[in-house]
Amino acid sequence: MPKNKPINTSEKYNDPNFDYTKYWVGREYENAAEEIAIRRLLKNKHFKNAVDIGGGYGRLCPLLEEYADSVTLAEPSSKQLTIAKNFLKKSKKIKFIKLDATNYNIPDNSVDLITMVRVMHHIPDPDNEFSQLERILSDNGYLILEVANYAHFVNKIKFLLRIKKSSNQPVDIRSRKNRNTETIPFVNHNPKTVIRVLAHNGLKVEKILSVSNLRSTTLKKLIPISGLLSLERISQPILSKSFFGPSIFFLVKKAK
Questions:
Q1: Taking burial as the number of CB atoms within 10 A of a residue's CB, which of 16, 114, 123, 129 is the most buried?
Q2: What residues contact residue 116 under an 8 Å CB cut-off, 6+ apart?
């Protein structure tokens, strides 16, 4: 993977004109699909502590409370942490820390469950991040990692029609205008490459789920959300081997 200079991804999320809570309006299906995946991966598990890295305003923290005695939202954006403290004000066991995006200020081997969801699309080269995750994860702990998938079904069809292979490298999907204005990266990853980089950093994938398999404006208009989610529950494990969906969830442990 290409090496990149450190990127302050918190700049966008600190922008007073950007409201990440509003991003999720109209994305109830995607939010529920991700919760289904996390519940499936954590079934029958419980942890002493969990850390949600780059969790924004704490969208997934109430879910993580069901699986851990304590939950920490580790977020580089000061604005998002402020919003989170209000969003999660009814919770009694969620802590908040400002995360150094280049060097996680979390002790070695101290976290039993790490979640990192909708973060990888801002990381063109995750080698350093994976090294940090391996360092802070306890020996028997778990990492749930979500990846924006460049090798999803629709792209595979496009590549087939063009007689072209999918890239093994992260692909920047920003418009040319946004690249020229030096906005933060927004990349899709090839899941097979992500698995190799995880392994390089001492992390092993135990389970894979294909998520948001029915993400489509048209389908959302035609099928009630309850129907979409019923199909989502069935399809997540079935479509995992083909990396079908636009979002891939990995359940990861330290390699032994």
A1: 114
A2: 52, 53, 54, 129, 133, 143, 144, 145, 146
> CATH number, domain at 237?
3.40.50.150
Cβ partners under 8 Å of residue 65, min gap 6: 71, 91, 93, 94
Give residue 234's identity as a one-letter amino acid code: I
Residue 176 belongs to some domain of the structure: yes
- The pLDDT tens digits of the residues spanning 22-59 come to 999 999 999 999 999 999 999 999 999 999 999 999 99
φ/ψ region of 51 (left if φ > 0, alpha if ψ in -120 to 50, else beta) reads beta
Say what the pTM is: 0.90
d(CA 249, CA 210): 7
What CA–CA distance (Å, rounded) separates 75 from 55?
6
Residue-number span of the structural domain to which 171 is assigned? 10-254
| CB 71, CB 59: distance < 8 Å | no
169, HSE (Cβ side, Cα atoms, 13 Å): 5
What is the rounded CA–CA span in Å between residue 172 and residue 113? 29
pLDDT in tens, 122-157: 999 999 999 999 999 999 999 999 999 998 887 778
Please give the Cα distance from 54 to 149 (Å, whole number): 18
Does a structural domain hold residue 241? yes
Total domains, the chain: 1
Token pair listed for 236: 């997540």
Q: Which residue has the higher pLDDT, 10 or 105?
A: 105
85 domain-assigned: yes
